[in-house]
Specification:
Strand content: 25-35%
Bound molecules: zinc ion
CATH class of the largest domain: Alpha Beta
Number of strands: 10
CATH superfamily of the largest domain: DNA repair protein Rad52/59/22
Number of domains: 2
CATH topology of the largest domain: Enolase-like, domain 1
CATH architecture of the largest domain: 2-Layer Sandwich
């Protein structure tokens, strides 16, 4: 048991910050460890360490499912402990790649960060052997993470920046889920734009046209005086 704990402690104590590669893809930034470096660090300390890339039908290193896409599987054994890892083949937006390109829609946001009501088409390209190979190497590196090596960089790895932002926005959408199709000032009933409505809701907690926003501001300032 002492020995088993030691593997994790040894590998977990290695600072990987210098070896962290970040890949920027659009708004996403993903952190990677180089497989060659990670494996070398392990082998230096545990020369008997071994890894397995699982092969399936026709000796192919992946499982493919029409609905969910490609998945690769690896295992690593160090000092008699084996951990398995699996990883779907994903594009830079963390969307599962399939044997054919496919489209999906994302919400369009205004520069102020409000959902415009429109959707943008995005395409996920089909996966190639290059993508599968890349995923296997990432899977192996992540597999080493199970032994402690660079584990901390995987903490938020499955969620790129843009998706974290999107989650926040969705929460904001939920707050405003009762937004009607057309917007009117609650004071003078004048029709207002969605941007004005959103701005007003955020700043005045109610729907106001620009004029009434000014009045409200004056009222608030006077109240403070
Ligand atoms: Zn008004």
């Amino acid at each position: 048991m002492e020995n088993k704990l030691a593997v994790f402690e040894v590998l977990n104590s290695i600072n990987v910050n210098d070896k962290k590669e970040t890949k920027k893809s659009g708004k996403n930034e993903l952190a990677y460890l180089s497989w060659a470096w990670a494996w070398a660090e392990v082998k230096k300390r545990y020369p008997e360490a071994q890894y397995v890339i699982y092969k399936f039908e026709n000796n192919l290193p992946y499982v493919y499912d029409e609905l969910t896409g490609y998945m690769v599987f690896t295992s690593v054994t160090i000092e008699g402990i084996t951990h398995e890892m699996w990883l779907p083949v994903m594009d830079s937006n963390n969307k599962a790649m399939k044997s054919k390109p496919y489209c999906y829609k994302v919400k369009e946001y205004s520069t102020e960060g409000y959902f415009t009501g429109n959707y943008i088409d995005k395409t996920v390209e089909c996966a190639s052997m290059f993508d599968i190979n890349k995923t296997i190497m990432r899977c192996l590196t992540k597999n080493l993470g199970m032994f402690g090596l660079g584990l901390y960089i995987y903490a938020g790895e499955d969620l790129p920046e843009s998706e974290i932002e999107e989650k926040k926005r969705n929460t904001a959408d939920n707050v405003f889920s009762d937004i009607p199709k057309s917007y009117n000032c609650s004071n003078c009933a004048k029709e207002i734009t969605q941007a004005e409505y959103a701005f007003s809701l955020k700043n005045f907690k109610k729907s106001l046209c620009r004029e009434c926003q000014k009045l409200e501001k004056e009222k608030n300032t006077n109240a403070i005086k």
